[in-house]
User: Fold these one by one.
Assistant:
Number 1:
Amino acid sequence: MIIKISECCGTFAENKDLARDIREKDIRPKYDDSDEKIILDFAGVDSSTQSFIHALISHFFQTTGESSLDRFEFKGCNKAIKSLITTVINYSLE
């Protein structure tokens, strides 16, 4: 399953309510019902807020821990977005 973040958010992923909707409507059903890898493709996204990334993925890492690392793949991330994802994952695993 591939979710192209730019298709719903454009070049700046900032809306945490939209991130929550993506999490609940698109990611959670696949996460709960299959072992399929969830690919979050950030190609075309120039920047994001930490609150967007947090609303998008932190729940999974907080509830299932490091095993969520096996379920997600992050593609097309620039350096700033990679850093935000790493920060959110580390914070969520504490």
Number 2:
Amino acid sequence: MIVFDFGCENNHRFEGWYSSTEDYERQQKGQLLSCPICSSVKIKRLITPIRLNSGKAGDQFEPSVNAQSLNQKKHSELVNFDPDHIMKMITQIIENTEDVGIAFPEEARKIYYKEAPERHIRGVASAEEVSALKDEGIEVVAFPISPHLANKSH
């Protein structure tokens, strides 16, 4: 298994797991990679801290202290993430919300200012749009839902 770190045009960081470099390259060429947070397909592979092990004791390259502390922080943030629980949450969100797509910021404002009926919505918004909504007092939650899950029919 090969793990690569990625970043999207909105500075979201995430990782991808691949069976081989060829598998990664095939998905990249086919534009099958997207950011799990904002669904952007403008993805860059990032430099990853590495650990090389030749099999001999003491013959290892260890990442710098900064890279190690970043890895520890990354893993400590993910400790409470149970994949089954997250999938149940995603399913519940999809089943109980209306997908308004890229019209999300506009629809959220209409609902907040009582220009549209109150309802539960989901959609796509940039980090700047989410920040602007929050500045207006509109409560929004950025929750990554992969496009292939969001488009599932129930």
